Amino acid sequence: MILTVTLNTALDITYRVRSLRPHASHRVSEVIERPGGKGVNVGRVLAALGHEVTVTGFAGGGTGRAVRDGLARAEGLTDALVPVAGATRRTIAVVDEHSGDTTQLNEPGPQIAPAEWAMFLDRYAELLSGASAVALCGSLPPGVPVGAYAGLIRTARSLGVPVLLDTSGEPLRRGVAARPDIIKPNADELAELTGSHDPLRATESARRRGAHTVIASLGPNGLLASTPEGRWRATPPGRVHGNPTGAGDSAVAALLSGLVTRLPWPTRLAHAIALSAATVRAPAAGEFDRQTYEELLGRVTVTGQAGR
Ligand SMILES: O=P(O)(O)OC[C@H]1O[C@](O)(CO)[C@@H](O)[C@H]1O
């Protein structure tokens, strides 16, 4: 089973508008509601790829119920979310049909009480005993300690479970020092972590800080991988238009899938690129267009070489 952790789950709401303008009122042409938060999206994509997945984190209130109802409809996915008194947040993606751009509005999330955090830690340790890999994804809700991911990484490592971290800011900085197996920052997150705006230098610097493998996501320009087995650059065959929300989560899903099935790095990266692009083609995060995925898989360019 692959375990995904989303401490700040969300009810993802996608609005389509003809053209988004500040200070104007808009008619929404389409509304999509899905269970969300980064690890939930990763879990939904992994389940659609045929993996057995368990999703944990927190859920509460009416929004939390909607998240859990959505998860119950997904095949291959087990809901192990810990109930909390506060209400799960909403995250809103506004897709501008004219420009093709997406604007994201993320609520902070509910206040997590110390007893709820303690309950989660017990559940996490139990779930890890049956996990082949774990992904720790997204922002932290208020009340969860800023060093939370560092602690979760240490627990996973002590049990021999490979761990992927996908977060930003101080939780990322502290998490990296706990030596996760893989991190997947975007260029901004990597620059904030290392102080370097050169992605090549920044990936090496992040590894020196503790991450065993760094997969830097360069948006439409692909992925840069620095691993103990070698360094590669993976580039999509062209630009794909659509809604990019959740494209990074699909890359994480592909990296985890490749990890547990032991694919060679260049193949893992090709899957990550094709699956991200196929998510841009889907209407909402946590979903992908299977035809685009299969079509693009053989057309991703991977350059680089094995070796330290
Ligand atoms: O935890 P955050 O960093 O706020 O990210 C959450 C958001 O990111 C997304 O997963 C897209 O990656 C959205 O679905 C939304 O839930």
TrEMBL record:
UniProt EC number: 2.7.1.144
Enzyme class, spelled out: transferase
An individual GO BP term: carbohydrate catabolic process
Domain Carbohydrate kinase PfkB stretches: 12-287
Coiled-coil regions listed: none
Swiss-Prot/TrEMBL keywords: ATP-binding, Kinase, Nucleotide-binding, Transferase
Spans through the membrane: none
GO cellular component: cytosol
Similarity annotation: Belongs to the carbohydrate kinase PfkB family.
PANTHER family associated with the record: 1-PHOSPHOFRUCTOKINASE, 1-PHOSPHOFRUCTOKINASE-RELATED
Official protein name in the record: Tagatose 6-phosphate kinase
Species of the source: Streptomyces murinus
